[in-house]
Design a protein that fits this description.
The structure is a homodimer of 415-residue chains. With 415 residues, chain A is an alpha/beta fold. Helices cover 42% and strands 25% of the residues of chain A. In chain A, a hairpin with an 8-residue loop joins β6 (125-127) and β7. β2 (35-42) of chain A pairs antiparallel with β2 (35-42) of chain B.
């Protein structure tokens, strides 16, 4: 059972928008045992849509298309699908009612282009879109299915979860795919590979191992394909256990969990709290934690303090420390970390002060110089990092390194 | 001149990683006048790579491939490219020296798989990778070019900027593409289309208009194709001016600038400062501002205050206000906004308090209820929003709405 995803829109090809829909759809299809063979992003052009659709339907049993369903002139997916199937249009009463309801809710006049949103190719089954005016459309072709969804992520997600996934489950008889991911940190992928080669070399042909490196972390993903989910899960868990034994020093967790969530879970189970004092990462690290539901039991608060004044008033950093050592120094991040512990009455803290760039570099502290502190109630540890010249990367690497330092401290404290 | 991008890796197809490389490459190619026709994401499988490469090279003059160049067994791009060109391998001395240098810098033993990183197909020109061990590779085929780059974003970006783009500029005689983007807010795309139809209906066939909606904002993008860049720029600017006149109430700016950057620039030019007090957005809004270089002249600081205690101690919210009205209320966001102005000595402030979910909802304040405040030194405005049930979307919509409220206040103050 193979699927292809086609995302339509010039904005994807000129890079104005990153295609996040495909990754999300890929995840959801995998969970129900459908393997994505290819993702294609193409332009809002009739020929491109027809050619790509013809090629995809040769290779796959299922094609999911997103985008090009809006009311404006650049949206031609619906018209092109009708051409592909050589059918005319019908007006869908449910969609028309939904369009009218949305426009009356916003007290907005209904334009002809909005009413046309209810016109769909004759051969489709309409998938009602509660979050927008463009309906999803389900087409059947011999043993194959083509689904067309709006490109707006939250409309697409709603339709996938409420309509498409349940229908796929009943329409196709699906095999199983089991993915199992482990998170490691502090070791490069070739060293990991060397350490686990005794396991990797004898993997059966229906189990694949992939290395996914990112900012000092490597995720290892086992993927198993077959008909007996329970047996696959047991086999993959057994392989995972063997791998863990070989890399115990670098092993973080046995699931596809981001490091900050591992930390949140660890701290929550021990009733520990965390405060953050950020300078150059500017709220990014706090956001890493607070994006996760339920973080408030652990995360007590955070200060983004850019200037000397703010570091003094928000975190109690001493003026003399700032003027003697500069804001990017061991002394300052340590006082920031202690200030966060004391002022926000937390058990642990992280502090970051650095030069994210592109401006602000100095000969002795070039762009990319970052000091990071972590503290518990008894001690403070600080470390200097020298990252690169790109602001975004410096922010992300600072946050990733801070997470690794805190994870290490927690592991030592609760060994 | 058309290009295709092929990104290789199972992690893309199962959605473990979002393909951000393609968007970035698409942007860079467009800037030098190369139009991307298709982006394909495929598996680390020989047949998939060969089939996709054959199809792409039929349609495009340039194919850029990323991924599958690592040292581990799942990385097969290099071997498959040698098969595609029917050539053997040669060892590249420069790459070997670079690999050795990196490993000695980290004091790490050099494994055979690392040395093999220096083996490249005989017919390629090596593009030296200063940031990693996998070199970029440039292949010429009749009048066409195929480039293979590592999938790690910062290695790929380095190679594109330093090696690939300059070589493309000299190898191909390139036409021009001019993109011109306008940002609008507070109006839906079909109403925008209605308002500007007099301009859109008479666009010449070499100029396209696209609508890019996102969280209450719509970007309008004009794309013009031709040989005379200067003439295209003038024509597109003239069309943009006509459009602006038709939608002046909703027009934010005449460039592809995110709203928070528009605000930063506006405030910087008037020597104004901004402080932020966040609850449910947890640092996300501060990060929106601080991701931009030079934000520190405007952005004085921000507090993420989750609990009652933190709202009191960090922002001076009165205990009675919290207990009488609850943290998600007009009264509390107004005190948060005033607290931020006073404590962080800023000219403007934003405050946000809401229930991002999935937990924490109540009958009278369901998940998605968010109060947002904006203030200047003289006055405070607050507004209630009712978003949906998804945490990430509630965080993003809260931040987007806060930006629109601040932009409106600034426009009124400096009308």
């Amino acid at each position: 059972m193979q699927a292809e995803i086609i995302t339509i829109g010039d904005e994807l090809l000129i890079g104005q928008i990153v295609d996040t829909n495909s990754a999300w759809i890929g995840q959801k299809l995998n969970e129900i045992g459908i393997k994505v063979k290819q993702i294609s992003s193409i332009s809002d052009e009739r020929e491109a849509i027809l050619e790509t659709l013809h090629a995809a339907i040769q290779r796959a049993n299922l094609v999911i298309i997103t985008g090009g369903l809006g009311p404006t002139k650049d949206d031609i997916t619906k018209k092109t699908l009708a051409q592909f199937f050589e059918v005319g249009f019908k007006q869908d009463a449910g969609t028309l009612a939904q369009v009218k309801e949305i426009f009356s809710r916003y007290n907005a006049p209904l334009l002809p282009v909005n009413i046309a949103q209810a016109d769909v190719p004759e051969n489709c089954t309409v998938l009602p879109n509660k979050n927008g005016t463009a309906p999803g459309m389900w087409f059947e072709l011999d043993e194959q299915v083509i689904v067309s969804l709006p490109g707006v992520p939250f409309e697409m997600k709603y339709l996938m979860e409420e309509e498409v996934l349940p229908k796929l489950n009943t329409y196709f008889k699906l095999p199983h795919i089991v993915h199992h991911t482990m998170l490691t940190a502090g070791i490069g992928e070739s060293f990991l590979a060397e350490k686990i080669s005794s396991v990797e070399d004898i993997l059966p042909n229906y189990i694949k191992l992939a290395y996914l490196p990112k900012l000092g972390q490597v995720r290892l993903r086992l993927s198993a394909y077959g008909n007996d989910r329970k047996a696959l899960e047991l086999e993959v868990q057994s392989i995972s256990n063997q791998i863990q034994k070989l890399i115990s020093d670098y092993f973080i967790c046995d699931s596809d969990t981001p490091l900050e969530k591992v930390i949140l879970d660890f701290m929550e189970s021990r009733n520990l709290t965390l405060a953050i004092a950020e300078s150059c990462t500017g709220g990014y690290l706090a956001h890493q934690f607070t994006q996760h539901p339920g973080c408030s039991t652990v995360f007590s608060g955070s200060a983004v303090a850019y200037s000397y004044d703010m570091k003094e008033s928000m975190l109690g950093v001493k003026h003399a420390t700032l003027t003697e050592h500069g804001a990017v120094s061991a002394e300052v991040v340590e006082e920031m970390a202690r200030g966060a512990i004391e002022r926000y009455e937390s058990d642990y803290s992280i502090s970051i002060s650095g030069i994210a760039g592109p401006g602000g570099g100095m000969p002795e502290k070039p762009v990319g110089t970052v000091w990071i502190g972590v503290a518990n109630k008894a001690k403070t540890i600080s470390k200097k990092f020298q990252f690169g010249s790109k602001r975004r990367e410096n922010i992300e690497r600072s946050a990733a390194s801070a997470l690794m330092m805190l994870h290490k401290l927690l592991k030592e404290d609760y060994a």
